[in-house]
Task: inverse folding
């Protein structure tokens, strides 16, 4: 059975009045999975949540992500990787 993978990028540290947008998200399957995205506006801490077939994979799965994730990123183009 083919598994579907869902991820959510979130700006978790911007103040309520700050404006940070995440867009132009592109996912390239593989090992690692490559996720390219763009941000505009203020600097932000970007986090990610993965789920498979609608079930969250948990924080341990997201902890394995590396690149432009789980840290402050400035506005611009970014890529994160996840060893599936």
Result:
């Amino acid at each position: 059975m083919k598994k579907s993978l869902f991820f959510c990028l979130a700006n978790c540290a911007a103040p309520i009045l700050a404006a940070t947008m995440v867009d132009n998200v592109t996912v390239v399957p593989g090992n690692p999975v490559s996720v390219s995205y763009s941000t505009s506006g203020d600097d932000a801490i970007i986090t990610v949540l993965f789920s498979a077939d609608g079930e969250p994979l948990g924080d341990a799965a997201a902890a394995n992500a590396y690149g432009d994730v789980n840290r402050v990123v400035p506005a611009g183009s970014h890529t994160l990787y996840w060893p599936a």
